[in-house]
Amino acid sequence: MAVFLWAMGLCLLVQGCLCSVGHTDQGCMKWKQHGEDVCCEVCHPGNRLVRECGQNPRDLCTPCEPSTFTVKPKDMRCTRCTQCVGAQIQVKECTATTDTKCGCKEGLTCGDADCSFCVKKCDKGQEPTEKRSCRPCPDGTFNDQIHQMCKPWSTKCPNPDQIIMAKGNALTDIKCANVSLRPVIVPEKSDHTEQAWPFVLSVITSIVLLAFSIIIIAIVLIKTKKRLQKRKETKKIITKTPIIRTPTDDPATLIAVECSFHEAQQEQGSSSESLASKDSSGRLIA
Fold this sequence. Notes:
Layout lengths: L1 H18 L8 E7 L2 E7 L3 E3 L3 E2 L6 E3 L4 E2 L9 E2 L7 E5 L8 E4 L3 E3 L7 E3 L5 E3 L5 E3 L4 E2 L8 E2 L9 E5 L8 E4 L13 H44 L15 H30 L6
Antiparallel strand pairs: 1-2, 2-4, 3-5, 6-7, 8-9, 10-11, 12-13, 14-15, 16-17
């Protein structure tokens, strides 16, 4: 039984400590004597007024309930903490002396000082509208800040020895320069890719033309060679070589040769007789 009572007492003590976290001072902070009672003028931060006068200053004020807060020193009621909903996100939790601090999701921004609602965040060169949207800066105005209203262009340069060199645009105001100084013209950076492309194109063209020329020359040489070869073939003299018969032991061949030899002798003999007969007649044959 004693152990049970001791445990209950410990739980109550812990609960009292947890409830008192954040409230280092309670009750009335400043009061004045009014007869036998005291009247509270200012409660401790995070405390609301219970009654204005009493015998004990601590009983005149009490801490705000959970999820409530107060910023007024003699307010009889605490205000409920704001809840971040919808497009809002909680940035800071509510305390007895401060309300919840809300923010907005990425791409949105608070629509008022208390961030009670979120609107689309306008970029530079734009301005927010009453319909919680964005629009470009009208002609003659500019905006160089995020989610701000556009401002009109300046009508003159800030220094008297300067002149307007260029009009403004949606992002910047007018540009001024000293009268004695000429505006510096910064040359545009050349693109290395654009510089290299004509050279590459010329190299490719030269290679193609060279290959084409080599092909044409080769074709011409082949055709010329064929023509010369054809001409040589047409002019070539075909010579007949004599047939030389080799001696043979064939009997038929030998008989044919012998007969031819006798015939030749007979012809020669007849020719000699003719010449002799002519000689006997006394005629001289040259």
